[in-house]
Amino acid sequence: MDQKAKKTALRGISYGLYIVGTKDDKGVVNGFTGNWLTQTSFEPPLVALAVKAGTRSQEQIAKAGVFSVNILETGKKDMATAFFKSVEPDGNKLAGYEFYTEETGCPIFNDALSFFECKVVDKIEKGDHFIYVGEVINAGVHREGDPMTLKETGFYYGG
Ligand SMILES: Cc1cc2nc3c(=O)[nH]c(=O)nc-3n(C[C@H](O)[C@H](O)[C@H](O)COP(=O)(O)O)c2cc1C
């Protein structure tokens, strides 16, 4: 295979950029920025999320069986950047951003445009990222706005 073409073609996939919320078995919350997310079914509403194998987030999703997805607004690159590294909660803040919880106990950020929460219903634990299929069990909208795209940030994750 032409490696350069593979990289260029795979980087041609369009993505959003989201903060995925997780929690550990004691209910301590965590979050990471991810773009490998897509809806895969209307009924039931399902999404597939790829999570880097061996990270704290991956281990938490595997154990807790739940995650949240926060839809960031266009221009919120600082918020996306804050969750590229491991974060620790400080009261009701993660990386300085206020959150609350609803059904799953995973963080929902006040600054997100909208959010949904998932229960893991299937998984494919192969490759360097593991795929978790989540059924959407709760959702909410904080305000109207345009969602962030990976392209606008100038970051790449794929190839
Ligand atoms: C642009 C960009 C996109 C990313 N997308 C993903 C992703 O889709 N899935 C993933 O597991 N990690 C992704 N990452 C890496 C995570 O943000 C990073 O591994 C995170 O710090 C893991 O947090 P943790 O150590 O608390 O689990 C991405 C990183 C960047 C820079």
Automatic annotation (TrEMBL):
<dbReference type="Pfam" id="PF01613">
    <property type="entry name" value="Flavin_Reduct"/>
</dbReference>
<keyword id="KW-0560">Oxidoreductase</keyword>
<protein>
    <submittedName>
        <fullName>Flavin reductase family protein</fullName>
    </submittedName>
</protein>
<dbReference type="InterPro" id="IPR012349">
    <property type="entry name" value="Split_barrel_FMN-bd"/>
</dbReference>
<dbReference type="GO" id="GO:0042602">
    <property type="term" value="F:riboflavin reductase (NADPH) activity"/>
</dbReference>
<dbReference type="GO" id="GO:0010181">
    <property type="term" value="F:FMN binding"/>
</dbReference>
<feature type="domain" description="Flavin reductase like">
    <location>
        <begin position="10"/>
        <end position="157"/>
    </location>
</feature>
<dbReference type="InterPro" id="IPR050268">
    <property type="entry name" value="NADH-dep_flavin_reductase"/>
</dbReference>
<dbReference type="InterPro" id="IPR002563">
    <property type="entry name" value="Flavin_Rdtase-like_dom"/>
</dbReference>
<comment type="similarity">
    <text>Belongs to the non-flavoprotein flavin reductase family.</text>
</comment>
